[in-house]
Every structure is written in C-alpha cells, then in structure tokens.
Amino acid sequence: MSYARVHCVGLVGVTGHLVQVEADLAPGLPAVVVSGLPDTALHEARDRVRAAVVNSGQRWPNRRITINLLPADLPKYGSAFDLAIAAALLGGAGELPLTALDGVVLLGELGLDGTVRPVRGVLPMVTAAARAGLDRVVVTAAKAAEAAVIPGVRVRGVDTLHRLVSFVRDGAPLLEPPACPPPAPPAGPDLADVAGQALGRRALEVAAAGGHHLALLGPPGAGKTMLAERLPSILPELDDEAALEVTALHSIAGLLPPDGRLLRRPPFQAPHHTATVASLVGGGSGLARPGAVSLAHRGVLFLDEAAEFGKGALESLRQPLESGRVRLARARGGTEYPARVQLVLAANPCPCARPAGDVSCECTPLARRRYLGRLSGPLLDRIDVQITVPPVRAAELLATGVPTESSAVVGARVAAARSAAAQRWSPVGRRLNAEIPGPLLRRPPWRLSPADTAELRGRLDRGSLSARGFDCVIRLAWTIADLEGRPRPDHDDVREATGLRTGEES
Length: 506
Hints:
Layout: E1 3-12, E2 15-26, E3 31-35, H1 40-43, H2 45-55, E4 64-70, H3 82-92, E5 104-106, E6 109-110, E7 116-117, H4 122-131, E8 136-140, H5 144-147, E9 154-158, H6 161-170, H7 198-210, E10 214-217, H8 224-229, H9 240-252, E11 268-269, H10 277-281, E12 282-283, E13 289-290, H11 292-295, E14 300-303, H12 311-315, H13 318-323, E15 325-330, E16 333-338, E17 342-347, H14 365-372, H15 377-380, E18 385-388, H16 394-397, H17 407-425, H18 438-441, H19 454-462, H20 467-484, H21 491-502
Parallel strand pairs: 3-4, 5-8, 8-9, 10-17, 10-18, 11-14, 14-17
Antiparallel strand pairs: 1-2, 2-4, 6-7, 12-13, 15-16
Helix pairs in contact: 2-3, 7-17, 7-20, 17-20, 20-21
C-alpha cells in the first residue's frame, strides 16, 4: 500500500479545524513535497520528520513522497502536524498498520532525535476534534493534562515517535495523562490593604458588579494602582464556557501553567506604557498572535500611566471595547480573537503630578490639557466610570482598629449583583449590565420613569452628556440597584450613577 491518512487539527486564530494528513508514496526520484497551503514551519517538517524517523530506528522510504493537508484551501501554520505526517508516511510505506489510529487525532512537534515536543494551542485543537466527533487524541506527554480538561475525550501521551510506533505495531501502552491537582486557593492582593478611598472602593465595586470600564485620575500615591490591581480579587470565578475561552487563548500564547488546569480566575493584564499596537491588540507575521486585550478576555486590562501610552495604541482599543472582538487582517487571511475585557485606566492629572494634588500643581492650563488630551474624547466616552482619586490623608493611612472590608466580603456582594443581572437579562441572552444595548434600556419594561431621568435628559440636551454617556448612566444605575438589592433603579441610583460617570461627586 502506498497511501495512508491520519487526522490532525489546524488553528486559525482561536478556532480549530480538523485536517486530514495524506501521504502518497510513488516510484521515482526520492523527494518530499508538502501541499495544502503550508507555512515555512510546515515546509521544514520534511527534514524534521526524516531525521526523527531514522533516529527512531525506522526505515526511510526512498521514493517520491507527497504529503497533502486537507482541506487544501485552509492555511496551515506551525509544527503541530509533524507527528501526523510521520505516522501517515510510515503507514503509506507499509511500515505501520494504521487501523489502530482510525479516528485518532495526532498532535505534536518532532525533534531530530525522535522526541515529541509540545506545541501551542492544544486546548482549542482538542476542542475542535471533539466538535468534529473524534474522541481519541494523542498529544505530547507535557500537554496531556491540558488536553484532558475537555470532557468526553480520551487523551493519551507520547514522549517519542518510537513509543507511538510501538503502540501502533505491537499494542504497547501509551502514557496516561497526570491527575489534575486540586485547585489552589485564590491568592493575590486584597482590597483590605487599601487605606481610605471610600469613593474609589465604591467605584471599583460598581465596576466589578456590572462589568463596567473604569478610569481613575489622581495624584501619585493616591492608590489608583492598588485599587486597579485588586479588581480581579472581587470578580467571580469564570464559568465553564468562559474558562475554556480564556484557557484556549492562553494555550495559543503558550502561557498556560504546567499542570494544564482550566483558568478559573479572571485574567489580569497590565502592559507597560511603551507597548505597541501589535502587543495590545495582537499581530505578527503569518498567523497573528493574540495581544494583551485578548489575553485579558473575561478579565481586566489595566493601563497604568495611561497618558504615557502612544496615541495609536490607545485608539486601537476603541473597536474591541465596542464589539468585544479583535479582527486582524493579514495578506493570507484574517484572524479573529475574543476581547471582552474590563478596561481600567489610571493617570495623573498633569505632568508635574504633585502628591498634594491640584492645590500644588505648577503646570499651565495648556500643559494640563495637552497631557490628558492624549486620552481622546471617543475613548473616554466608552469608559463608564470616571472618578478622581483624592490624596490619602494621614488619619486614613495611619488609622488602627478601623475595620476595612476584604475582597471576600465585597466579592460576595458583586456575585449577588451579577446573579440578579443575569437572571433579569437572560431572556435577551445577556448577563452583565454593561453589555445591554442602549435601545433595550430605553424601551418598556426597562425604561426608567421621566421623573428619575429628568436631570439626565437635561444634560443630554445641553450637550454635557453624549447619547452613549446617557446609556452608560442608565446601565450604572441598574448595577447600583442590583448591589442594593432593589428590582429597579430609583432617582438616587441615577444621581449616583451620574456622579460616577462625570466625576462631579469625587
């Protein structure tokens, strides 16, 4: 027999596609041809596979070898096809009876000595295999724990090509995936560490409960970074669907921990202010990799010293904040990554940034406008909560015996508020108040009474609030009502929401 076929999976963005690896061996001058839109790494697989086969004690067929990857119109990237190519080639040469690999997906990169090395993106690849109806997967031993988190899939590991050959030829056992360790207790900074800052703590709680974006302005040392870093500690754990999405993105980026467990805590990304557009939204030649906004999916993207970021980098976030997705167009095709994040901005009010705040500022009005002008109006208009964090007073910093709520206490209220919002919006397929479209909020039965929104409508008519800002205030009011346990917002909720949006009460 000169033809064989095995299964593999290719990735385009975060989506896996089942790929059939065909091998045909024909008489003629010895050569290896790889077809099916392979990238450079796949073209180089010819030499890797040849060395791995020979160094594993197998005979290399001196014939004309054609390797085809189906579907042929789907771009193929990376080295995850090496193991499947080697198995198909040996099967076509008559060295292996491939009946043992019927319906089995092979994923792994080959070293020249025949070792099977881990590849990125195993989790979304195994997810795609399960979606296609294939429930048996062979991966590198280092990635077996990661692949095993997909329910209903039987995962086995291999460390060498020789072990796979022994399994197919002689029925030798493959490696079992390691047992998943128990989840570690949540660790990290606690909200109880923040001294004072009642307004900042309230804004953080409202932002967490409704999934709202947050901007913190204030002098250095006021606690802006401390507050932002503690936002993940009051967010609920991710459900199964969100955990799979987040873990798949980190798998593609090669950032998963060795135990391969699902990421249950909301991710936190805090790129440096010198970050480029590509590092924020994703990029790279060939297959575009996810950026910080996608790695923070279902979590927090924190931009400290936001006014120091490049204008282009900041403006690149406007579309992902609206749509919750990043579409990266490249010459060989587009890639799409999810990017539903909570954006937190922290910035000083001016270049001199005196710790005492505005009372000791030495900057001219023009310098202040230019500094904060780097945060454009369209970007700030997408930030629901915008407050000014005042300097910490000595009495607050040195207070003893004054109980401060911990992240666990605040997180319980946030979880209860999110549960109420999810129950209310489940008929329209939404979960968070920040995700509700404005037109829905302005229609019965969710439309607030004219008496409760009179001041808000006046601001809209005077131009001090945009239509997007109007809807943001209504969403914030619903979140505040959820935190207080009320079925609908009242006039006081709308007033507090207006203050959090405009910063006037700070």
